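Researcher: Here's the sequence for the chain we discussed earlier.
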Amino acid sequence: MIRVQNIYHMLAYAFQVLRGRGYRDVATEQFDNAAELCAVILSRGISSQIKRGLGREYMDRTEAISSLRGKIEVSESVKTRSVMRRQMICAYDEFSVDTRMNGILKATCRLLLHADISKARKKELRSLMVFFSDVRDVDLATVDWHMRFDRNNQTYRMLMGVCWLVAKGLLQTQADGSAKLMDFFDEQRMSRLYEKFILEYYRQEHPELAAQASCIGWALDDDFDDLLPTMKSDVMLCHGGAVLIIDAKYYSCTTQRRFDKRSIHSGNLYQIFAYVKNKEAELAEVPHTVSGLLLYAKTDEEIQPDGVYRMSGNRISVRTLDLGLPFESIRMQLDEIAETHFAREAHCSDVG
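Model: Thanks. This is the structure I predict for it:
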């Protein structure tokens, strides 16, 4: 079972802004559930955004107005008889706060008002809604979350990330098109956060390692790669000639059962093996070692994956990360993975 407080730490690594002065005391607060945590983060983030100014964009407007503005739509004005009301249909650009991202913030706060959070949190969110009076409502179930960020809206990146977690965690669309609240953070949502957290942890806490989510090319006998899937690692750690590919897995069940026997998920094992062997082929011209690690988030199952295997000359490990422990213990587990692996590889190179 993951601690709610650890969700904050995971978010703080995924979005570094959460490690800033305005959020530091969040790390010491206790929360009853993840919705409460996200409500606090959004409340502080939106307050900060309001102080610097809500984002604005030029929006296309076409409406009947009394004072002429922009381009007059003569045919539409005649058709709607707006002249009879001493108005004309005009098309113009307006520099407005009624943007998609502001609409998402407003809709997410409204959604949280129906969640299991304290009255004090709800009061904070309601007080912020005053600043969104000119922002139209957005249907979170239809939002396209693939957004482009630039220097003008960079401060919205974390806010949109938390909104995505809230919307996907609290809102579930039914077959008839209606929506209902559901339990916060399902497996899919936590899986993405878990992957991002592991990558950013090693980037920030182990600068001696090159940490990235790299694509791995297929070791082909020719150049024909039509329809082959992309191999993109969750985390790839490199130091000298040593490479460790980590596949971060967040499942409700860390093992599979077949014929009354527990085993590692076969698809996961095939995947990490393919990553390792193709990366090894990619580095064939330079001295190197390539290893793989399946890093599962620990569950409450009786059997937890834990083992080291030698496969075709490569080391493939399977471990679990206990997210139910205090964060300092999680930090120690992650540090031990990196230090043990690269110390061993350095020792092997010296012996060689």
